[in-house]
Every structure is written in structure tokens, then in C-alpha cells.
Design goal:
Elements (H helix, E strand, L loop, with lengths): L2 E3 L16 E4 L8 H8 L5 E9 L2 E8 L8 E3 L1
Antiparallel strand pairs: 1-5, 2-4, 3-4
Organism: Panicum hallii var. hallii
InterPro entries: Nucleotide-bd_a/b_plait_sf, RBD_domain_sf, RRM_dom
GO molecular function, one term: RNA binding
Length: about 80
Amino acid sequence: MSCTCLQDSSTIAPQNNPPCPTLFVANLGPACSEQELIDVFSSCAGFVKLKMQNKLGAPVAFVDFKAYGVHIGFMIL
């Protein structure tokens, strides 16, 4: 799993949305672990914490950052 920074953040979110310090991560594999995601996101500036949930057999995560806009432009591959 890797983070790639995109040049144009306007392609990710409409500009009329206020910034949010929480990043929602979905489409994770069934074997993806919370520790694996913490290892990836802890290297990103402003990382605070990660909460992983299993919704109907599909794991999802919520990643919190300190500052607004730190995670804008990141896409999980």
C-alpha cells in the first residue's frame, strides 16, 4: 500500500465543501490490518489516529489528521 500525492486537489473534492480533518478509506482487502494502515498513514504529516471498522465484511478506516487539508490530494493505491 502506498500514498501518492496528486497535483490538482480540485479533482478529488468539490471546492464548495469545507475541509475536514478525517479521511475515509474504503475498498480495503479482507486481510488488511489496522497496524498496516497505521504504518502507512503515520508517515503522513499531521497524522493523529486511525479507527478501523468492519462493515458487512468489508473493512473501512477513518484517519484523523491535526490540520485541515493535510490529507487533501492523497489517493490510496
